[in-house]
Request: fold
Amino acid sequence: MNTLITYQVEDNLALIGLARPPVNALGQPLRAAVLDAAERAAADSQVKAVVIHGANGLFSAGADISEFGGDASFAAPDLPGLLLRLTRLDKPLVAAIGKLALGGGLELALACGYRIGEPGTRVGLPEINLGLLPGAGGTQRLPRLIGAKPALDMMLSGVQVGAESALAQGMLDRLSASAETLLDEARAYARELVTGEAPARPAPPFPEPAKGLPEDFLARFREENEPRWKSRLAPRLVLSAVEAACLLPLEEGLAREVALFKHAEASRQSEALRHVFFAEREAGKVPGIDPSTVPRPIGKVAVIGAGTMGGGISMNFANAGIPVTLLERQGEALDRGLAQIRHNYGISVKRGKLTETQLEQRMALLTGSLDYADLADVDLVIEAVFEKMEIKQEVFRTLDRVCKPGAILATNTSSLDVDQIAAVTARPQDVIGLHFFSPANVMRLLEVVRGRKTAPDVLATTLKMGRTLGKMPVVSGVCFGFIGNRMLEPYVREAHRLVLEGATPDQVDGVLTGLDLNMGVFSMLDLAGIDVNFLVRDSNRAAFAHDDSYCRLGDELYALGRHGQKTGRGFYAYEGRNRQDDYEVVALAERLAGELHLPRRRIDDAEIHDRCLFMLINEGIQLLDEGIALRASDIDLVWINGYGFPSHLGGPMHYAEHLGLDKVLTGIRHYRQALGDYGEMWFTPAPLLERLVAAGKQRIEPI
Reply:
């Protein structure tokens, strides 16, 4: 028998076990094995019902994503065809769903007439996260099972639904008492169906999925959500498929779904999102770290600094059930920080994301302190104080004295040299950078900055811890700004310079948000704080002391006290969070351009795109060449998870590959000549970019 499944007949039941570890991905070999087993059960007159289950407890996490975009995706038997065949068996099929039924795994369960789960079962259709839609009947069978609106919401969100909710909605017919008894109870359920002469497939609860909804529901749904979807293709295709479920007979709807799926699969957006999917799995592969590297235990953590960043970092650990000591110099600052954390949790309670009990449980894990001696027994301490080298070094001298041997000493610096910080300690091997992004309790990115002497087990520990906190940890080497903020510098530089040359902040931001970036440069600076940007830039003046004219606009706004949203004035004027253009900023840019003898002109959108994005990309390629970033895909993860670069563009490096590396290089060379002395100074192509284009390479990789 095929090793990808188990097959056995017990009395009048055929048991088909999926056995393709680790998650029973429904690639072509497993699909073929399931079809063979199903045909065997269909032909056996002794078999009266079939139970499909995960041979090792887990049902199926879905399709084999590596097949998408290639011939194997629809290689016979394709998943839609296999599931259609299962629906036509004249014997009851029971899906015994252990742990997970996601994507194609849930579609397999939907093709069975009956479904039983365990208490920990989770089901979902997350294809939207790959720029796809369910393509094996999910968009047609789920609306007929639970109704059009809940099915649509589930597919568009991609969220996983727990067992009790799945039972209440009708996706599950029963729940077993435990995971251990699932298969036994599935057998009993199947025998009950046989004894009761149940039909192979019961009538769907919602034969008309849109019945009871307003006649214009789908049209209004599209109109209301189009702005939020921006240029994303997949949500529109999901809606079209559900519309087909509401208007067409099942078989016609299934054919329409396959056509829509193939359209999505062939799209650049899905290709980009699949790139991101695999990039996340590659990011954990770090030279010098292997399964034999034993992480250090992290049972207790300390955070130094109870401001916005320190409080947010502390919440991450409390959320994960890890005790945190929050250290401040003054009692008033400590009380204010703890009160802000409680306030933040209170917002989650109001939104229904936490209960009052959970709030109190998390607050109980937080202990305030004004004494470094209270850090003597912590396993990890994270410094989150003012972004100034002298202050951070003084903190680390103290930590070196008070912390136990083997404690990991981490800095949350966003730009400073981690090796210089480590050098003031007698244990540089225990020092690492952990750059959380603000708000730290929300943002997914965690830049893990490996110092020159950072020990492998320290790196392994922090990577594991980052994943425990629900973060996307990405390793960076040491340089000013690491991966994200170093790339931010030329990106922001060009935005500032373009405004001096004649663009407006709104025009620059409009080009960037037109690409579906979450925010433009100037909206981002106003949100983060122009003062914060000034202080970071001021600490690195030496890097651009030969020409800091481009940042004069930001410097002037800082001097005027226009620090962004928090002061109501920045690059824009604000009433609350409502943004308005501010003619004073344009007037200021005109004055500064005159002082710099910089002629102003009309700037077109294409120039804004190329100068901002090509400089961002160029710096990323340089980081890869220097070994600061391990992979181009790591850079993409940093910008997607930390800076709002749209995942359906795949990140800036993947976007460059889509544009064509030769086009990027040509654009940089063009502006190097067209912008005179400024161009000569700043538009220098990364040597790796030149080598890649000369070699005819289409991918960004070290050569």
Summary: The chain has a mean pLDDT of 96. The chain is about 50% helix and 10% strand. Residues 4 and 30 are 6 Å apart (CA to CA). The domain at 301-476 is CATH 3.40.50.720 (Rossmann fold).
